[in-house]
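REQUEST FORM: STRUCTURE PREDICTION
Request ID: SP-0412
Submitted by: Lab K.M.
Chain count: 1
Length (residues): 310
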Amino acid sequence: MPCANTNNPSNTIKNYLLEPARFKLDGGAMYGIIPKPLWHKRHPADELNRVDLSLRLWVIESDSKLIVVDTGIGDYHDDKFKRMFDVRSELDPIEQALGKIGKTSSDVTDLVITHLHFDHVGGIGKKINGQWEAVFKNATLHLHKEHLEYSQKCTPRDAGSFHCENFLPVIDIYKKKDALQFYSGQEGELFSLDHGSEVLRFKCSHGHTPWLMHPYTSELIYLADLIPTSHHISLPWVMGYDISPGITTTDKKEMLDFIGQRDLTIIYEHDPKYWGSKLALNDRGKVIAQDLQESKDELSYPILDNTSVE
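STATUS: Completed
RESULT:
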């Protein structure tokens, strides 16, 4: 477990990364217009042309809060779905993952959902006797209002990514108990982590899906599907899943500049090998990933360095 800040232990914020599951998606879809000979060297595909991907969650613990960002894919899918996406997880994957850091879903105070695609919001609920229940019973749910609206009026091209029948009943549970916090606009403040000195903020991107939230602190940023792996740092490396690939390149350029100016560490939600990195410029002035941080094993639970609030 991370060591406490012995000078002022009450002000310690701990950052964890948990991996409740892995799955696979088509490599061509993950890398869009990039030819397979290029991406396959970096991210080898299986015999069905699928590449292995992490479902990596960011967990932040302070004196008064336990925050989870995204929820993975869930465990309620049928066998056909699991075979298609090669989903590998235990039952109750969220509980199993949180147990690695001595926590349970009941300990979670805040749940931030970056966007409502099935592999990011799938773990928000579970079915008990045919009825949906919230996995994080004591949490406040944080969502972008315009993105929720988009999820219910999306295009035929991306409708398959939004399993509204699974997440809307759970969102309604949070709404009925007055535990749903909406956000609006391009950027803003989510909430103070503790003592008012460290704040979780967000910026939005629109190329992958409209109003995709990217939470960040003074040290870390969670890029979700804007830059899902370390290979997607290069501007033309854009997923075929993106609703507006050209906008993605513009969003990425702006976000990379933002990250570089603040010297943030990137968290890669889907990279199967590296959980994060810094940014640097190569000898041609191109932005690249630097100081890549490797996960320990296939289903590891790496613990990030502590952030101490002064």
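NOTES: The domain at 9-308 is CATH 3.60.15.10 (Metallo-beta-lactamase; Chain A).
Reviewed by: T.R.
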